[in-house]
């Protein structure tokens, strides 16, 4: 069976800077795949390229048997590919409910939107409790829940998470990783960029190690956890 997402020879440049240098990877349906490496290794640029937020300079991206290499960002969420960006980026002056509704923008099927509300509020009871509260007044952990919930409103096939544990207390980090497993068990495929290497490998199926804009290692989560490539990718940065 073909992977849900496959990138071949992917390159991303910022002016003269080559942020991503010809990487090849794939994410199979039903997997949790983690992208590991130090800051500046090219992980976030890769995710941004997948969802059309930065242009692909070379290479191809296939998603659900379609070529999305040059697709516009606004067309990818309805197609089932959604990114939760680093730093959460909730709309602080909108209510929790209004933030969630933004995630369903463009969905005309009212039954689908109603089902999405139910799903998100079941996963995150605190969001239902605080649905009328301004998002900017939530804690960091609650804002991360809101950012993920907003992404889930579009019922994604593949959910990309960029540093979901960043800046969160250890207890909340555990909850975020537990949630990732729950979503996988519910049929969502996940690609996760994480600095927290060992904790993310503990829940992942496979992973890729980035360094200097290239992939320097890949394999099962267990193999990567035991590999010297992982520590080298952080120490050599």
TrEMBL record:
Keyword annotations of the record: Amino-acid transport, ATP-binding, Nucleotide-binding, Transport
**Presence of the UniProt keyword Glycosyltransferase in the record:** no
Q: Which domain of life is it from?
A: Bacteria
List the Pfam families: ABC_tran
Q: Where are the transmembrane segments?
A: none
State the protein's name.
Answer: Branched-chain amino acid transport system ATP-binding protein
What taxonomic ancestry is recorded?
Answer: Bacteria, Pseudomonadati, Pseudomonadota, Alphaproteobacteria, Rhodobacterales
Entry similarity comment: Belongs to the ABC transporter superfamily.
Spell out the CDD domains in the cross-references: ABC_TM1139_LivF_branched
Q: Which InterPro entries match?
A: AAA+_ATPase (IPR003593), ABC_transporter-like_ATP-bd (IPR003439), ABC_transporter-like_CS (IPR017871), BCAA_Transport_ATP-bd_LivF (IPR052156), P-loop_NTPase (IPR027417)
């Amino acid at each position: 069976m073909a992977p849900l997402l496959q990138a071949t020879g992917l390159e991303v440049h910022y002016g003269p800077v080559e942020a991503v240098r010809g990487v090849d990877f794939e994410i199979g349906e039903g997997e949790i795949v983690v992208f590991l490496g130090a800051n500046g290794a090219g992980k976030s640029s890769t995710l941004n390229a997948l969802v059309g937020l930065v242009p692909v300079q070379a290479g191809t991206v296939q998603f659900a048997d379609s070529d999305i290499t040059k697709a516009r960002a606004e067309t990818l969420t309805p197609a089932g590919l959604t990114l939760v960006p680093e730093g959460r980026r909730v709309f602080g002056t909108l209510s929790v409910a209004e933030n969630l509704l933004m995630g369903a923008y463009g969905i005309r099927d009212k039954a689908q939107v109603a089902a999405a509300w139910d799903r998100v509020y079941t996963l995150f009871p605190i969001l239902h409790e605080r649905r009328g509260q301004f998002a900017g007044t939530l804690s960091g952990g609650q804002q991360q829940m809101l950012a993920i919930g907003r992404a889930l409103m579009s019922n994604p096939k593949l959910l990309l998470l960029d540093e979901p544990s960043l800046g969160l207390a250890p207890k909340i980090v555990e909850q975020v990783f537990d949630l990732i497993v729950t979503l996988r068990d519910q049929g969502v495929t996940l690609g996760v960029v994480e600095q927290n290497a060992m904790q993310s490998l503990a829940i992942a199926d496979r992973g890729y190690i980035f360094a200097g804009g290239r992939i320097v290692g890949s394999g099962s989560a267990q193999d990567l956890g035991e590999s010297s490539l992982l520590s080298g990718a952080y120490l050599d940065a």
